[in-house]
Amino acid sequence: MNQESQRNSASFLPWLLILFAGSGFCALIYEIVWFQMLQLAIGSTSVSLGILLATFMGGLCIGSLRYPRITKYLGEHPLRMYGFIEIGIAICGVLVLFLVPLVDRVYIAGWATGLPGMILRAAFCAICMLPPTILMGASLPAISRWIEASPRGASWWGLLYGFNTVGAVFGCLFAGFVLLRLYDVTVATLVAASVNVLVALVSFAVAAKMPAKAVPEDESAAGTEITEDVGDESTFPVYLTIALSGMCALAAQVIWTRLLGALLGLTVYAFAIILAVFLIGLALGSGVGSMISRSVKPRLALGWAQLLACLGIAWSSYMIARSLPYWPINHMMARSPWDTMQLDFVRVIWAVLPAPLLWGASFPLALAAVASRKKDAGETVGKVYAANTLGTIIGALGTSLFVVPWIGTQDTQKVILIVSAISSLFLIVPYIQKTKSLAAMGTLTASLAVAAFLASGIPGITGGFIMWGRQLMTLGDESKIIYSKEGRNSSVAIAKFDDGTISIGVNGHVEASSLNFDMKLQRMVGHLPAILHPNPKRVLGIGFGAGVSAGTFTRYPGIESITVCEIEPIIPPTSTRFFAAQNYEVYKNPKTRVIFDDARHYLMTTQDKYDIIASDPLDVFAKGTAALYTVEYFEAVKRHLNPGGYFTLYVPLYESDFDTVKSELATFFEAFPNATVWQNTINGRGYDMVFMGQVEPLKINLDEIYARLARPDYSPVMDSLRDLGFMEPMQLFSTYGGGRPDLGEWVKGVPLNRDRDLKLQYMAGWGINSQAEHEIYMDMMKFRKMPKDMFFGTPERVGTLLQAIQAGPQ
Predict the structure, then answer these.
(1) Can you tell me the distance from the alpha carbon of 541 to that of 554, in angstroms, rounded to the nearest whole number?
(2) In terms of DSSP bridges, do strands 480-486 and 491-496 run parallel, antiparallel, or are they unpaired?
(3) What span, in angstroms and rounded, lies between the C-alpha atoms of 375 and 93?
């Protein structure tokens, strides 16, 4: 190719970079949408998320390996093939919208436990995700085939990867902050598909004007061959090193996302920021690696990048555990959610960026290390990409499912650092053996010693970190941490105050305490339905927490079985150890059975029915919890209630705002038109509530209830009520806060939370810093009317109760 043709080829590079950025933009939108849709079916446990991630990354790996071999002899223009791939991704993306609900029914009908259940989960994900992800994996080899292997050509490959990652950054933020916050998965999918089609059309147009092969070489380098740094060595060490680099990168991302999520508040926005910063590091690093790949020995540079990554791993571990939690910040003082997001973005960049820069630089260096004109460009890029992707699968799955539950996040980060250091030896040691360079040997020895020192000093997170999360600086000095432990899905801590009060915190958020107002709410979740039901026998609890809600049912003589669905195995024994007096040791009760599974997944797949279902999940702002607040989920709850059954749901007013609470209540009313609201206040000020739903209109016979509670076998029930300050049932029923006939007007016109959008997690995350619990409560009470047709019995009892409701909490 002459010099003029080479310049013409170079002029098209910006178009390729823009096209591939668009591809990355779409890929992250799809990934976020698909993960949200598929988690609704298979659950949000570590096993489920691991299978989802493995399927997604596995598709990329398959596509990057198989595409070059399948299309090697087709002779099509690379950019035209790339355009067809983008159209295929768009078609598959739209089909997933229709496919998931259909396959979902088959999955639920055939669900099983144990290994068969895991296989079914994997098959379900494979059917939905492999076709589009295989095409995504083929896109980089396809577009890379246009560029002939040469020093500058390998640099261009790296730039393509970098711009693809830049597009992924924008896709991640646009999906999390705009598309899914304001719209739903359908709109998000159609936007991504439209961009795919646009990219394809531009690819076709560019392909018509450019040659089928570009030789991006300046005249002085023309005709040169890329040679290995040290003779004609095997390329296997390069593939092994880039695989280990990917493994370390994803393992670190899993850990840092878990820790930073607890520190920033567990919202969808916090997770989007963490992912975006990680991708920014990869993109910037890839750009730098592409620029230097022609002026360094790429094998040697790739090896040293892994050693330098050890510094980044140590930096991030220290910043997350010892620096960020102690920045003098009070999130509650933020003027708007955007202020909080900007602050979180800065903190994540400060803590996380260094190591991803080096992992990003590793990819173009690996490409340059194996590129040769003797090899097919697409096959070369595909193999490197596949090796890196295979490493990411091992890192993500191994870390989340096995290593962290086994040795914890602190020791896992030590292992990652050590593996990163070891991976450098596969490329640096052969260079030293070949050159016999004493300077290189001395530098390597000193570097390994520094790596060993850094690994030994990796700090662990404190119990206060697990307990208080983003409020560590404002609340951390008020108590003593007496226990903490990291589990597979969550980390748990127990705090004790000077007055003897204890609290349990999960992933940086307080879930329950032995304070009277918390105990009152937790037991109301159990007492309200159990007192109203004439003869409850079977109970399902959603979320174990401190075990108080589930333990309430042990007081009732007719209860025959208590099933509790809990996502984290370490929570029940921890709560039993420290809250045994408050939860009546329900975990050890022979009537109790604990199912360790995602609550939604369990309810959607079980055939059992219950007299009472009591739900005490994580707060709705926590990513994934909104799936337990959708119309479809509430309808499933209703299907699992026996005739005359009750469903109670804990709903906080604190750390929430008007829009969130209104949407929660409107969604609840949609599934349970006869639902009622029961209030829990602190000194007359709004704090949290219990929503209670049932199929039939609620009719409460006070005389029957008083007679039942007067029986000797109900004395444990009365003792439990008196512990809360309810000396008689009248005081419990005086917490009535309204129903659909009156509060329906308060929530009129607000958006409902549905499976297709999970709007609540975006609303709640936006209003997490609100301090409007009392204002929300008072605004609700303006609409409440006296329930004259709900209570009946002797006129004196009914009249006294209505007066108590009218007077409100004292």
Answers:
(1) 12
(2) antiparallel
(3) 33
Backbone angles phi, psi at 535, to 5 degrees: -160, 70
**What CATH class does 463-506 carry?**
mainly beta
Identical fold, 231-460 and 463-506: no
Alpha carbon of residue 141 to chain centroid? 30
What are φ and ψ of residue 505, in 5° steps?
-115, 140
Q: Phi and psi (nearest 5°) for 496?
A: -120, 135
Residue 227's pLDDT band, with cuts at 50, 70 and 90, is very low
In the 8-state DSSP scheme, what is residue 214?
A: B
Residue type (1 letter), 766: W
| CATH no. for 1-218 | 1.20.1250.20
Question: For residue 237, what are the contacts with CB-CB under 8 A and spacing of at least 6?
Answer: 299, 426, 427, 430
* Secondary structure (H, E, C), 523-562: HHHHHHHHHHCCCCCEEEEECCCCCHHHHHHHHCCCCCEE
Alpha helices per DSSP H over 175-235: 180-182, 185-207
Q: What is the DSSP string of 70-135?
A: HHTTT---HHHHHHHHHHHHHHHHHHHHHHHHHHHHHHHHH--SHHHHHHHHHHHHHHHHHHHHHH
Q: Beta strands 509-513 and 502-506: pairing type?
A: antiparallel
pLDDT band (50, 70, 90) for residue 294: confident
User: Which are the contacts of 679, defined by CB distance < 8 A and separation ≥ 6?
Assistant: 686, 689, 735, 736, 737, 777, 809
Three-state SS for 598-666 is: CHHHHHHHCCCCEEEEEECCCCCCCCCHHHHCCHHHHHHHHHCEEEEEEEEEEEECCCCCHHHHHHHHH
C-alpha 637: how far from its chain's center? 24
Architecture of 231-460 per CATH? Up-down Bundle (1.20)
Phi–psi pair at 593, nearest 5 degrees: -130, 125
**Can you give the pLDDT at residue 775?**
95
Q: Identify whether the C-beta of residue 538 lies closer than 8 Å to the C-beta of residue 610.
A: yes
**Predicted TM-score (pTM) of this structure:** 0.91
Question: So what's the pLDDT on residue 72?
Answer: 59
Look at the block and give the residue holding tokens 């949290």.
688
User: Looking at the predicted structure, is the pLDDT value of residue 186 above 70?
Assistant: yes
Token representation of residue 74: 């087709």
How far from chain centre, in Å, is Cα 2? Answer: 52
Single-letter code of the amino acid located at 56: F
In this structure, are residues 149 and 40 in contact, taking their beta carbons and an 8 Å threshold?
Answer: no
CA distance 525 to 594: 18
Domain ranges (residues) in the chain: 1-218, 231-460, 463-506, 532-807
CB neighbours (10 Å) of residue 223?
A: 10
For residue range 745-801, list pLDDT tens digits in order.
Answer: 999 999 999 998 999 999 999 988 888 999 999 999 999 998 878 999 999 998 998
DSSP output for 694-710: -SSPP-EEHHHHHHHHT
The CATH code of domain 532-807 reads 3.40.50.150
Q: String of b and e for 650-665 (b: at least 16 CB within 10 Å)?
A: bbbbebbbbbbbbbbb
**How many Å apart are CA 332 and CA 586, to the nearest integer?**
36
Task: Encode pLDDT of 228-237 as tens digits.
Answer: 443 456 889 9
pLDDT digits 0-9 by tens, 613-651 = 999 888 888 888 999 999 999 999 999 999 999 999 999
Q: Which helix (H) or strand (E) holds 26?
A: helix 13-42
CA pair distance 269, 172, nearest whole angstrom: 10
Tally DSSP H helices, then E strands, for the chain. Answer: 32, 14
